């Protein structure tokens, strides 16, 4: 086996382990996340997860990095519109990303909240978790600035807080049995962003 093939195989195994860890977090919570449970969920020989992430902290960091990769695809940062496309284009893109997190990526969203809570108790994990979300916040800041926001930092905080609040309520909170239709998410975002930009 060449070094390149071995590296690819290692990367694939790391992805498999990280995906299994995220699935366990969604299904069983933080207490259900063990090296042995990840091995079983990933269908790997016992000890495989420990070879990749020897400590619990290392396993959590692996999960956070994978979460960032997968959420970037859910949020589709590469699909965010050019600000010149106008307010409705931005609203459509953000509504679609938010709705995806509530529907076909619901388990990933639940795993994110498990990791977010754990990060409040582990400062060393906090840095990984915060860095994972920085890319989206920065891009959102660039977008609202280009669209004329007079207070981009405050507006980004409000948008992220709104989206997080909606997702938590509909995934783990009092509205967990309800998923708002895409048109409702779009209407809410249109009112919120329109109000921020005075449009």
Could you give a short description of this structure?
The protein is mostly helical. Helix content is 75%, strand content 0%. It is elongated.
What does this protein look like?
With 199 residues, this protein is mostly helical. It has helices spanning 3-28, 35-42, 48-52, 56-75, 87-102, 106-119, 123-146, 152-171, 182-197. Helix 4 (56-75) runs parallel beside helix 7, helix 5 (87-102) crosses helix 9 and helix 6 packs across helix 7. The protein is elongated. The protein starts with a helix and ends with a helix. Mean pLDDT is 89; it is low at 1-8.
Task: Give the topology.
Layout: H1 3-28, H2 35-42, H3 48-52, H4 56-75, H5 87-102, H6 106-119, H7 123-146, H8 152-171, H9 182-197
Helix pairs in contact: 1-2, 1-4, 1-6, 4-6, 4-7, 5-9, 6-7, 7-8
User: Which structural class best describes the helix and strand composition?
Assistant: mainly alpha
Rg, rounded, reads: 19 Å
In N-to-C order, the SSE pattern is HHHHHHHHH
Can you tell me the residue ranges where pLDDT is under 50 for at least 5 consecutive residues?
A: 1-8
Largest sheet, strands/sense/barrel: none
Portion of residues in beta strands equals under 5%
Overall pLDDT confidence: 89
Number of strand elements: 0
| Count of helical regions | 9
- Gross geometry: elongated
The percent range for helix content is over 70%
Termini gap? 60 Å
Task: Provide keyphrases for this structure.
single chain; 199 residues; mainly alpha; 9 helices; disordered N terminus
